Amino acid sequence: MMFPLDQIEIIAHSSPSKIVQVVMDGLGGLPHSQTGMTELETAHTPNLDALAAGGTCGLLHPVAPGITTGSVPGHLALFGYDPVQNHVGRGVVEALGIDFALQPGDVAARGNFCSIDDKGLLSDRRAGRIPTEESARLCQLLSSIDLSDIVPGTQVFVKPVREHRFALILRAEGLGDDVADTDPQKEGLAPLPAVAGSSGSDRTAGLANSFVEAAHEILSSQIPANMVLLRGFSGLPHMPPMSQVFRLNPAAIAALPMYLGLAKVVGMTVFPAASSIEEEFRILADSFAQYDYFFLHLKPTDLAGEDGDFDRKVKVIEEVDSLIPHILELNPHVLAVTADHSTPATYKSHSWHPVPLLLSSSWCRRDGVSAFSETQCLKGGLGHMASVQVMPLLLAHAGKLSKFGA
Amino acid sequence: MMFPLDQIEIIAHSSPSKIVQVVMDGLGGLPHSQTGMTELETAHTPNLDALAAGGTCGLLHPVAPGITTGSVPGHLALFGYDPVQNHVGRGVVEALGIDFALQPGDVAARGNFCSIDDKGLLSDRRAGRIPTEESARLCQLLSSIDLSDIVPGTQVFVKPVREHRFALILRAEGLGDDVADTDPQKEGLAPLPAVAGSSGSDRTAGLANSFVEAAHEILSSQIPANMVLLRGFSGLPHMPPMSQVFRLNPAAIAALPMYLGLAKVVGMTVFPAASSIEEEFRILADSFAQYDYFFLHLKPTDLAGEDGDFDRKVKVIEEVDSLIPHILELNPHVLAVTADHSTPATYKSHSWHPVPLLLSSSWCRRDGVSAFSETQCLKGGLGHMASVQVMPLLLAHAGKLSKFGA
Q1: Nearest residue of chain A to residue B36 (CA atoms)
Q2: Is this complex's ipTM strictly greater than 0.90?
Q3: Alpha carbon A92 to chain centroid distance?
Q4: Residues on chain B touching A366 (C-beta within 8 angstroms)
Q5: Is B89 at the interface with chain A, CB within 8 A?
Q6: Parallel/antiparallel/unpaired status of strands B56-61 and A107-116
Q7: B242 at the A interface (CB within 8 A)?
Q8: According to CATH, what is the number of the domain A5-88+239-397?
């Protein structure tokens, strides 16, 4: 029941009304063993509760029931794009996130500096989360790697992202992006070779393996970051921008380059990475006149969930709640608060559980929900739906969709 | 999750059991600002409430969440046909609705008599809703238009529909139907030229423009109807009839030709347009023995919604409720009451909000719903589904579907 984008494009029209979509990363939770309440249910959230009571709520399956989504499909769906049909690799997202001007044909990979022991086995997949400046210095070293003896004319770009993360971009003729990760995802194992999944990507796999070999040599004395892992090999996808399919003039506000990169893939204008939740809300207020759709991404809920820190996740939710009035002062026509996926603190990882959705506008049908929580959203007027179905709802409530058919 | 028609066709079988599907056009509403209750919730509906209590309820998305549907896709979905895949143009619907024998290759358009001022700008898109008899006289005048000098052998049919509405049918070799509307949808603007969207429709656009030019000349002295607007250029779609895919012998009862025309597209037998709700119920009773599926279309709920007349919509709902016992006396095996879309009186227009569905039969699982309303249907046993999913449910409850698979 996903309405096709080529049909949305026909009925969508530009208008002055404003949409704010707040994505609290990993918001969905699971009950605390003592209280039986999730993080969101535990948090004191008078502002979100009032919005839920006056609006319409529901539960979203980020991709499909039972599927635990990564950040990329989880967000693509919220942006209105089919998360299964539209594959955007992690490498592309990292590269775009640091403002690297990716060209069609480039293959990008997300890199991690990591630590290996003298047997070549991974002792730390993140090299102790080395600081960004250190990572930048190491990237500089790796930038000297020359692969033009393998494929003539190859250019290699190694760019720091944040802490242990970097982006590798390979530029040469005839590079496919169907190459498996070298990250075995577990410590105690050896990094894997880059293996092409199809013959069109043999050349890329060859370049990647030579890069890793050269990097290992250069880094051998750079404890703890004495090795690299590569994953998410990918080239630029072909996705119509939000300006075309939804007739929006969209902007993205986030603290991490990855989310800004992803927003760029669908044509959003992005603001420089913010350094706090408060700053993100300030950017929204300052730029409110210039755009008609805002993606406001809040990461700390997910980080607390990943760390298994129930109380910290509760505190982050309460902090966000306390800032909601700053959005209401702007008087957007539509305000949605939701998540890209669940990251229950008890589960310490992304999970498949549906995420709560709150939609506030003048045209909401009442549904008896009195607070913003997983349990109450279950009874919400929007029922259960897939995240990809949210964007048409936001556009409809903002008066940006004409009638379909005669 | 739409079960494919070619599979339905395999498991559907004819049987004497009877299905009545009552469509209260635009039934879905939004809360009144004073009471917080929708039109349906405000109306006193003891008969519908009793049916809801004994049956199973749910909420339907006519096309998809957030999509405001026109009448055509909204009804096609209720008839069991994918409303996005099956495009039926307005012209076809109007022509069939007045019993015009459309032939494959014909292109039909919905016409409006309209008023333009001396600058050629639209002053009234409906020419003051001139009476049908006046429209018939003008259609007679326009029937003299001869376009055979443009495309040899062209036949032009101009047929009155109701008030300012007429149908134009062009019959000639090689006519495509990909032609844009000449109706700019707004007063103060000039009518648009008919423009072909692809080269296969150039000939149709040429004929349409010549027709409009000739019509303008003929009508110049016929104030207020001194011009015409054309929209919904379309040819007969290729849809398997309900007799084939659902093994039904279906009949349609409605007051407006448009809905009867649409019913014909899917192969229903249609009764002459009724002049009141009561007459529609009488036609149903009189013809009950001859058919096994009845589409009973009730328009006044939508008209009241479009007019923003909350109280009138409530009254219409109450009138329908009072007539429900006449259906129950017939003892159909399945009675469904629903809508093609919402037309909330507060919104004064079709909207995207899901519509209530009530299904009554001997085989309903109870769901705790005690009244027919949007809020109660939200808790109904059928949950949220797409309108296109309803027909298999009706067939199943009527014992007209065999087991799928071994």
Answers
A1: A366
A2: no
A3: 12
A4: 31, 36, 375
A5: yes
A6: unpaired
A7: no
A8: 3.40.720.10
What's the CATH code, domain B93-234? Answer: 3.30.70
* Dist. CA A251–CA A268, nearest whole Å: 5
Q: Of the candidates A368, A393, A402, which has its C-beta nearest B375's C-beta?
A: A368
What is the pTM assigned to this prediction? 0.87
Domain boundary assignment for chain B = 5-86+240-397, 93-234
CATH of domain B5-86+240-397: 3.40.720.10
CA distance B92 to A227: 68
Q: How many CB atoms lie within 10 A of CB B3?
A: 15
Per residue in A239-277, pLDDT (tens digit) is: 999 999 999 999 999 999 889 989 999 999 999 999 999
User: How many other CB atoms sit within 10 Å of the CB of residue A128?
Assistant: 16
Report whether pLDDT(B128) > 80.
Answer: yes
Kindly report the average pLDDT of chain A as a whole number.
Answer: 96
Chain B contact probe: residue of A5, A245, A403 with most B CBs at under 10 A: A403
**B167, B89 in Cβ contact below 8 A?**
no
Q: What is the DSSP string of A243-254?
A: HHHT---EEEE-
What is the C-alpha to C-alpha distance for residues B29 and B377, in angstroms, rounded to an integer? 13
The Cα A354–Cα A386 span in angstroms is: 9
Long-range CB contacts (within 8 A, 24+) of B361-365: B361/B55, B361/B333, B361/B334, B361/B335, B361/B397, B361/B398, B362/B333, B362/B397, B363/B396, B363/B397, B364/B54, B364/B55, B364/B56, B364/B397, B365/B56
pLDDT in tens, A344-376: 999 999 999 999 999 999 999 989 999 999 999
For residues B132-158, give the mean pLDDT.
Answer: 96
Looking at the complex, report in whole angstroms how far the Cα of residue B329 sits from the nearest Cα belonging to chain A: 35
Q: What was the pLDDT predicted at B104?
A: 84
Using CA atoms, how far apart are residues A121 and A103, in angstroms rounded to an integer? 35
B67 touches chain A (CB under 8 A): yes
How would you classify the pairing of strands B250-253 and B269-270? parallel
- Average pLDDT, rounded, for chain B: 96
- Residue B102 pLDDT class (50, 70, 90 cuts): confident
CATH class of A102-234: alpha beta
> Taking the CA of residue B121 as centre, how many other CA atoms within 13 Å lie in the half-sphere pointing to its CB?
6
Task: Measure the CA angle with vertex A258, ends A309 and A6; round to 5°.
Answer: 115
d(CA A394, CA A55): 12
User: Rounded to whole angstroms, how far apart are CA atoms B251 and B21?
Assistant: 11
Chosen from B93, B165, B352 to mutate, greatest number of chain A CBs within 10 A:
B352
Q: Which two tokens stand for residue B403?
A: 């087991």
Is the pLDDT reported for residue A136 higher than 90? yes
Q: How far is CA A168 from the centre of its chain?
A: 19
Residue B98 has pLDDT above 70, yes or no: yes
**A237 reaches B (C-beta below 8 A):** no
| Residue in chain B lying closest to A384 (CA) | B384
Answer yes or no: same fold for B5-86+240-397 and B93-234: no
Q: Is pLDDT above 90 for B28?
A: yes
- What are the C-alpha distances in Å from A300 to residues A52, A184, A313, A320? 22, 26, 7, 10
- For A331-340, b/e burial (b = at least 16 CB within 10 A) is ebbbbbbbbb
pLDDT at A1: 64
Residue A4: cis peptide before it, omega within 30 degrees of 0 = no
Give the span between the Cα atoms of A95 and A73, in whole angstroms. 17
Q: Residue A104 gets which letter from DSSP?
A: T
Q: Is A405 on the interface with B (CB under 8 A)?
A: yes
Q: What is the mean pLDDT of residues A89-113?
A: 90
Q: A-chain residues within 8 Å CB-CB of B381?
A: none
Q: What is the SS3 assignment for B130?
A: coil
Q: Could you tell me if A403 lies within 8 Å of chain B, comparing CB atoms?
A: yes
Q: What is residue A349's predicted lDDT score, i.e. its pLDDT?
A: 95
